[in-house]
Amino acid sequence: MALDGLEAAVHASVGTSKLARSKAQLNVVRYADDFVVTGVSKDVLESRVLPAVRQFMAARGLELSEEKTRITNIAEGFDFLGQNVRKYGGKLLIKPAKKSIKSLLDKAREVIKGNASVTQEALIRRLNPIIRGWAMYHRHVVAKAAFSTIDSHIWHLLWKWARRRHPTKGARWVRQRYFRRDGHRSWDFATRSSTEDDTCGLQLFRATTVAIQRHVKIRGLANPFDPAWDLYLARRRSAKRSVGLPGATQWR
Questions:
Q1: Taking residues 4-21, what's their average pLDDT?
Q2: What value does the CA radius of gyration of the chain take, rounded to a whole number of Å?
Q3: How much is the pTM?
Q4: What is the mean pLDDT of residues 89-95?
Q5: Whether pLDDT at 242 is above 70
Q6: For 232, which of 28, 47, 76, 182 is 20 to 30 Å away at the CA?
Q7: Residue 195: its pLDDT value, please?
Q8: What's the chain's average pLDDT?
């Protein structure tokens, strides 16, 4: 709420005429107290927009974080809400930020090292919500490579965890004790099922099992408080729930 009106202040920084605003091509993306301002001119951003934002913040007893504030070219990219926004050869791609990947792996490493003596099932139950939550958050961007990286690193951490628990046992014994076959995969970290075969019981969640679902931008004029938009929003919610089902598409 404290930043309500920021967009108006940003646009007003280049003047009130439609021509001036059209040339500046300013856009504001805001989430809670984090925001990004984009424009075509670095000079305009430095000399007009940044001072206007500082003034806007000061009037509310706030100030910009010097650590998080910077002006950069889109070709160099920037991180926002755990994701990296950057142009590659003229194509804009949004990917999980390296800091976000590192943070997840650090958390997984902390959980694994801190649970050296728990059962395999208990460890899986601790890790699964962490991995699933991170993957679901990033499923709308270019994240397949990041998902593979996450799965690979965590697998190696778990292999070391299993080997340390049984220093006198060989690799084959450890593999048979902690890893199971799942379809064409024979190295899934999982408990043994209740059947006699080597199939999985409780499995470690793999980020790569999360399907990439491109986000469909909501129509700019859509208003949840306006009954005229009820049908559109209801169809959008229904389509979002059905994504992943055969033949399902996002409602635009």
A1: 88
A2: 24
A3: 0.83
A4: 94
A5: no
A6: 28
A7: 62
A8: 89
Strands 34-38 and 27-31 turn out to be antiparallel
For 4, list phi and psi in degrees, rounded to 5: -60, 130
DSSP string covering 17-82? SHHHHHHHT-EEEEETTEEEEE-S-HHHIIIIIHHHHHHHHHTTT----TTT-----TTT-EEETT
Amino acid at 127: L
Buried/exposed code over 135-171 (b: 16+ C-beta within 10 A; e: otherwise): bebbbebbbeebbebbbeebbebbbebbeeeeeeeee
Sequence-distant (6+) residues with CB within 8 A of 168 are none
pLDDT at 247: 42
What DSSP state is assigned to residue 208? G
**3-state SS class at 229:** helix
Nearest-angstrom CA–CA distance, 99 and 104: 9
3-state secondary structure of 102: helix
In a 3-state reduction of DSSP, which class is residue 131? helix
Which residues lie across from 94 on neighbouring strands?
85
Q: What is the pLDDT of residues 50-65, one digit of tens each?
A: 999 999 999 999 999 8
What is the per-residue pLDDT across 101-147, written as a single tens digit (0 to 9) for each? 999 999 999 999 999 999 999 999 999 999 999 999 999 999 999 99
Are 95 and 143 in contact, with CB atoms under 8 Å apart?
Answer: yes
Q: Are 124 and 188 in contact (CB under 8 A)?
A: no
What is the rounded distance in angstroms from the CA atom of residue 16 to the CA atom of residue 151? 51
